[in-house]
Design brief:
Elements lengths: L13 H4 L16 H7 L15 H25 L5 H9 L11 E3 L5 E3 H9 L14 H5 L5 H19 L21 H6 L38 E2 L2 H6 L10 E4 L3 E7 L7 E2 L3 E5 L25 H11 L2 E7 L13 E16 L6 E9 L31 E3 L8
Parallel strand pairs: 5-8
Antiparallel strand pairs: 1-2, 3-9, 4-5, 6-7, 7-10, 8-9, 9-10, 9-11
Helix pairs in contact: 4-7
């Protein structure tokens, strides 16, 4: 039997149409008592206590600790399930904090967390001075110039090569030459030791190439190890680099002849105008400084550089597309791709353009060259398992106002 609601005339407001709070109960139903209504209402909440002050950093660290703990449990579960792929394990352990992928050109902070070089630079340029994972402070020197973790690069590349070998059934091995397996150092006389390595003898040459040899040093030119000079191979100094033929001069930065071409260059931070971008870099020619008398270390430009002698050798290599070997020294402090110690062979590059411009010192002109990497082996600062592929030339801002520009028009003599 329905409840009897009082009839309301049409047009009555909606609020007045709502039923009364205590409608007439059905016939035979017990009336609701205050005790029965109390069971339907939620219990009154206790007065809230004021939360004690908790610093933001401590709260972030506590939250991150919980997240890292849960991630570690997930990794243990995956390992228990039988996931033995080395590349997957490296990806879970050393992934970039921001993009959550295998770090491209990895940078490792002192607290042990890894970032891609680009992710790290974006993080620093946004004004952050702490680690994105644990909020630990990043040293100012590292924030200004991060260094690529070469050990992690080699581990990632080796894992990629291992996975490819397993999938294709190839038995190719990844060669890595440890420092203990290398031959004896370049010998020095007692008199040369007192004057430093600048006057030291270089010792014997371990490869069978001529001083004017272009391109990489292959296994057929390496009678001692039969593997050649591999990309990423490092030496303690330029004397040992000379022994293996990567760059013969142990002082000059350019190896070549004006009428024959340039075979190799070394980047050691000698000129402020040099710019490094990984796959390509801008190189400054030689000369233009007053090195007479006791000014052998003078870094001030005294006159214009011309396309003569060693600069002419680089120009000829640009016109004919000759391959140029490139070695990096740890003395180059402005580049993230330079090694942390010693001298490293980075592979073969090609000179695509050359021009002249007023140097950073603002007084005299310097010769400039655009080097683009074209090696079949991956670079030592990248975790790719393949060599360089065709890419468009970069846009150089300083070329907009220059007129003395020469580009390579001929087909490269080496590909």
């Amino acid at each position: 039997m329905a409840c009897a609601w009082p009839a309301l005339p049409r047009g009555t407001p909606r609020a007045s149409r709502s039923p009364p709070l205590s409608p007439t109960p059905r016939t035979g139903a017990a009336p609701r008592t205050p005790t029965a209504l109390a069971t339907l209402l939620p219990p009154p909440s206790a007065p809230s206590r004021p939360t004690p002050p908790f610093p933001t950093k401590r709260r972030a660290r506590r939250r991150q600790k919980l997240l890292v703990g849960s991630a570690a449990e997930d990794e243990n579960e995956n390992d228990a399930a039988g996931n033995d792929d080395v590349l997957d394990i490296i990806g879970k352990t050393f992934s970039c904090v921001f993009c959550m992928k295998l770090p491209d050109r990895p940078v490792t902070t002192p607290c042990g967390h890894n970032f891609c070089l680009k992710c790290f630079e974006k993080w620093i340029h946004s004004g952050k001075k702490t680690c994105g994972t644990c909020c630990a402070e990043i040293p100012p020197k590292m924030a200004q110039l991060p260094r690529i973790n070469s050990a992690l690069v080699e581990a990632i590349r080796a894992a990629k090569v291992s996975r490819k070998a397993i999938s294709t059934g190839s038995s190719a091995q990844y060669h890595y030459i440890w420092n203990n397996d290398r031959p004896n150092k370049a010998y020095t006389t007692e008199r040369a030791k007192r004057a430093g390595n600048a006057n030291a003898s270089s010792g014997q040459i371990f490869v069978t190439i001529a001083p004017d040899h272009f391109g990489p040093i292959l296994a057929e030119n390496d009678p001692h190890r039969n593997i050649g000079v591999r990309v990423g191979e490092t030496w303690e100094d330029r004397l040992q680099c000379r022994q293996w033929g990567a760059h013969f001069p142990h002082i000059a930065g350019i190896a070549g002849q004006a009428t024959y071409g340039a075979q190799s260059v070394a980047l050691f931070g000698g000129y402020q105008d040099d710019e490094d971008h990984g796959e390509w870099f801008l190189y400054t020619g030689s000369g233009g400084r007053d090195l007479s008398g006791n000014k052998r270390t003078n870094k001030e430009q005294a006159f214009d550089q011309d396309f003569m002698k060693l600069n002419a050798a680089l120009r000829l290599s640009c016109l004919r597309g000759y391959p140029v070997r490139v070695v990096w020294s740890h003395k180059e402090k402005r580049s993230s791709h330079a090694p942390e110690s010693g001298v490293r062979y980075d592979g073969v590059y090609r000179i695509e353009r050359r021009w002249r411009k007023i140097g950073i010192q603002g007084k005299f002109k310097v010769c400039r060259y655009l080097f683009v990497r074209c090696d079949n082996e991956p670079a030592p600062w990248t975790s790719d398992d393949h060599g360089d592929r065709p890419r468009p030339l970069p846009n150089i801002a300083e070329l907009q106002d220059e007129t003395d520009i020469t580009e390579r028009n001929e087909r490269p003599s080496w590909d």
